Amino acid sequence: MIGIGLLVIRVVIGLSFVGHGAQKLFGWFGGHGLKGTGGWFDSIGMKPGVTMALFAGLSELIGGALFALGLLTPFAGILIALTMLVAIVKVHGANGYWA
After folding, report:
1. pTM of the shown model
2. For residue range 52-71, what is the model confidence (pLDDT) as tens digits?
3. What letters, b where the CB count within 10 A reaches 16 and e where it falls short, cover 28-63?
4. For residue 37, how far is the Cα from the chain centroid?
5. Is 74 helix (H, G, I), strand (E, B) or coil?
6. What does the alpha-carbon distance between residue 52 and residue 57 come to, in Å, rounded to a whole number?
7. Helical spans, DSSP H, in the chain
8. Which of 20, 27, 29, 37 could serve as 53's disulfide partner, Cβ 3.0–4.6 Å?
């Protein structure tokens, strides 16, 4: 039963990150794509914005997919954690959790 619970958690979290990465990269699920996200990254001081958006989107997409599939989970976790650490420092640190 524990194995099923961990599978559900891994799939839900992994696919959430895949979707979040797809927003940044492709504009799917209401996202702004690379140019829009890159412009926002520029506005918060993450330059060059499009390059940083590409790195963030790829980290979320690849990390989420690997995590959901249970492949290279330590690497997937590092990709996800590093992306979220930057989000905490650059966005949520100053604006709070719900920013």
Report:
1. 0.88
2. 999 999 999 999 999 999 99
3. eeebebbebbbeebeeeebeebbebbbbbbebbbbb
4. 12
5. helix
6. 8
7. 2-26, 33-43, 49-69, 73-87, 93-95
8. 37
Query: Does residue 93 surpass a pLDDT of 70?
Result: yes
d(CA 17, CA 62): 9
* Under 8 Å between Cβ of 14 and 71: no
How much is the CA Rg of the chain, to the nearest whole Å?
14
The mean predicted confidence, pLDDT, of the chain is 92
Whether the predicted pLDDT of 99 surpasses 70: no
| Degrees, nearest 5: CA angle 92-89-46 | 105
Query: CA 59, CA 73: separation in Å to the nearest integer?
Result: 13
For residue 73, name the pLDDT band (cuts at 50, 70, 90): very high
